[in-house]
């Protein structure tokens, strides 16, 4: 008789999640996941965060994973997991590692094709696992015989690819026993092939010899937590650093070596655009050149001459080095820079000069000027797709502040639940949320959860009477651009409780006063009333680009 220690499948999964730094589970209960939840939460160190719906849980897990490095949500079969799939697809597009865990009907019911509730009543229990296979790095329906192997495979794939994974856990498998011994071997991202890394490093040193470096970092650099090593390179004085929108703030934008954000032909500063496009030696770090982050593909980069560092391979000019991991490649670059010595840093970028409030009604220009003057350092700044995100893109972020949003997936409403995840992942930082009224209507229920779990988020609802971003693209007066107006202060006080402080502002001076009054120990909601057709300059340029492709 074997004396090898065992744990339940759910306890095994919980232990793996804790090893990955996960402390919170987001989701909703359902009859197929109750036994799973009991075991996941029984003395494992995991804390349950009940969300108002599964889509919001997916968004919250995404926000959590962006800060902690990994996230998890739990839904029930069919109705729950399908509600969450849009959020998980967004995590796939934006390269966010997390796991979607579904409590599923018993293995015997699936084998028999039982006409069970939450199914399509056709006897096929595989519909939803197949759907998730399209938006995850790995997907498994657990079996009693192989559950531990399957869990490790999915979590390892999510780590490796910086994408979501999917685990369907039948009710009978959740409580089955598996060996605990393999938990002694932690899950890790893959290491670089040593020979490939050595060859890459040699080629990189030769390629960069004596050249002035310009780095262009994308969102994968953020997912691999490369901010500190990029700062080390920037501190050398031998490199300048620009980012794409998805990595805005990865390097302090007031650092002397920071070029700010590069958006192809839509880059606000032509000197920045030329510095990237005419770089003597360009190093691209973890970039995905999608439409909205490149100014509708107006970027002009000769990548055949550049050093391009991706998740699992590197390229120096036309020479490819598969098996070189992104973090190792950037570390090799930093070592080469260190050996080259240091150069005098240019003068630090000047802090923006405080502006005065514009007279008359609040405009987009007045809104962003007020935020620029007020925004504190070390802020978790979330901005939803549309006027919020593309206005925030023009801010010069203070030290320790990064912009969190979805420039690739662009699912409106994402940031409000994501704020819940961000604030639980890093409670010491004060979060600030910028969200349009149309976007907020999709996910506003989660305000009730986040307002009770963090003492002082600041939420700005940009009320411009509908879908302003869509109006800027086409048919501004169409009926489908309108939304039902809501009484935002009253609604958010009702959802958040008595501790919520609210204000409605219609002028720049009122906005500045409301921001100044946002006490650090209270939830603050500011409804900023704007003209429906007023858009930030970057969004206007993008809208014209989108309109040209849809005419």
Q: How would you describe what is shown here?
A:
This protein is α/β, with parallel strands linked by helices and 551 residues long. It folds into 3 domains: 6-184, Rossmann fold (3-Layer(aba) Sandwich); 194-340, Rossmann fold (3-Layer(aba) Sandwich); 364-546, Thiamin diphosphate (ThDP)-binding fold, Pyr/PP domains (Rossmann fold). The chain has a 7-stranded mixed β-sheet, with helices on both faces. Strand 2 (24-27), helix 2 and strand 3 (47-50) form a beta-alpha-beta unit. The termini are far apart. The model has no long low-confidence stretch (mean pLDDT 95). Belongs to the TPP enzyme family. InterPro entries: DHS-like_NAD/FAD-binding_dom, PDC/IPDC-like, THDP-binding, Thiamin_PyroP_enz_cen_dom, Thiamin_PyroP_enz_TPP-bd_dom, TPP-bd_CS, TPP_enzyme_TPP-bd, TPP_PDC_IPDC. Decarboxylates branched-chain and aromatic alpha-keto acids to aldehydes. Mg(2+) binds at residues 437, 464, 466.
Walk me through the topology.
Layout: E1 6-8, H1 9-19, E2 24-27, H2 34-41, E3 47-50, H3 54-68, E4 71-76, H4 79-93, E5 98-104, H5 107-112, H6 127-133, E6 138-141, H7 147-161, E7 165-170, H8 171-174, E8 177-179, H9 194-208, E9 213-217, H10 219-223, H11 227-235, E10 239-243, E11 258-261, H12 270-277, E12 281-285, E13 307-309, E14 313-316, E15 319-322, H13 326-340, H14 364-374, E16 379-383, H15 387-392, E17 402-404, H16 415-425, E18 430-436, H17 437-443, H18 447-453, E19 458-463, H19 468-473, H20 488-496, E20 500-505, H21 508-516, E21 523-529, H22 537-550
Helix pairs in contact: 1-2, 1-7, 3-4, 3-16, 9-13, 11-13, 14-21, 16-18, 18-20
Family: Belongs to the TPP enzyme family.
Keywords: Decarboxylase, Lyase, Magnesium, Metal-binding, Pyruvate, Thiamine pyrophosphate
Domain Thiamine pyrophosphate enzyme TPP-binding: 395-527
């Amino acid at each position: 008789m074997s004396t090898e220690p065992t744990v339940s499948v759910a306890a095994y999964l919980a232990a793996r999640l804790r090893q990955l730094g996960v402390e919170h589970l987001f989701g909703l209960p359902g009859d197929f996941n109750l036994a799973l939840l009991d075991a996941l939460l029984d003395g494992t160190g995991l804390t349950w965060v009940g969300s108002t719906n599964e889509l919001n849980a997916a968004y919250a897990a995404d926000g959590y994973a962006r800060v902690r490095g990994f996230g998890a949500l739990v839904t029930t079969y069919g109705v729950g997991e399908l509600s969450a799939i849009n959020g998980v697809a967004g995590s796939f597009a934006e390269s966010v590692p997390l796991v979607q865990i579904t409590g599923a009907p018993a293995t015997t019911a699936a084998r028999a094709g039982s006409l069970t509730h939450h199914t399509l009543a056709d006897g096929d229990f595989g519909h939803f696992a197949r759907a998730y296979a399209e938006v995850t790095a790995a997907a498994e329906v657990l079996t009693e015989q192989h559950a531990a192997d399957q869990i490790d495979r999915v979590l390892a794939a999510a780590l490796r690819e910086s994408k979501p994974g999917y685990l369907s856990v039948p009710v009978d498998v959740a409580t089955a026993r598996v060996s605990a011994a393999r938990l002694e071997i932690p899950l890790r991202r893959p290491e670089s092939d040593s020979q490939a890394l050595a060859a890459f490093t040699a080629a990189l040193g030769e390629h960069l010899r004596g050249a002035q470096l310009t780095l262009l970092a994308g969102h994968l650099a953020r997912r691999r937590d490369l901010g500190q090593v990029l700062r080390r390179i920037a501190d050398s004085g031998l490199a300048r650093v620009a980012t794409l929108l998805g990595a805005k703030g990865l390097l302090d934008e007031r650092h002397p070596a920071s070029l700010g954000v590069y958006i192809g032909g839509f880059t606000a500063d032509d000197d920045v655009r030329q510095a990237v496009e005419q770089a003597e030696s360009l190093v691209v770090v973890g970039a995905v050149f999608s439409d909205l982050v490149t100014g509708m593909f107006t970027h002009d980069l000769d990548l055949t001459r550049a050093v391009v560092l991706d998740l699992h391979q590197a390229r120096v000019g036309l020479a490819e080095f598969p098996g070189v991991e992104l973090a190792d490649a950037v570390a090799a670059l930093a070592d080469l820079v260190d050996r080259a010595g240091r150069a005098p840093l240019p003068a630090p970028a000047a802090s923006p000069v405080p502006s005065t409030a514009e007279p008359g009604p609040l405009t987009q220009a007045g809104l962003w000027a007020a935020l620029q003057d007020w925004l504190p350092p070390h802020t978790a700044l979330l901005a939803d797709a549309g006027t919020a995100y593309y206005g925030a893109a023009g801010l010069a972020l203070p030290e320790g502040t990064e912009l969190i949003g979805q420039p690739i997936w662009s699912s409106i409403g994402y940031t409000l639940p994501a704020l819940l995840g961000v604030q639980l992942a890093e409670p010491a930082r004060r979060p600030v949320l910028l969200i349009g009224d149309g976007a907020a209507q999709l996910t506003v229920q989660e305000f009730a959860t986040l307002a009770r779990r963090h003492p002082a988020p600041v939420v700005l609802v940009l009320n411009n009477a509908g879908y302003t971003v869509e109006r800027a693209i086409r048919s501004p007066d169409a009926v489908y651009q309108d939304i039902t107006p809501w009484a935002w202060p009253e609604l958010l006080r009702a959802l958040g409780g008595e501790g919520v402080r609210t204000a409605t502002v219609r002028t720049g001076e009122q906005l500045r006063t409301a921001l100044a009054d946002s006490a650090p120990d209270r939830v603050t909601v500011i409804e900023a009333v704007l003209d429906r057709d007023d858009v930030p300059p970057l969004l206007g340029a993008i809208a014209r680009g989108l309109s040209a492709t849809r005419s």
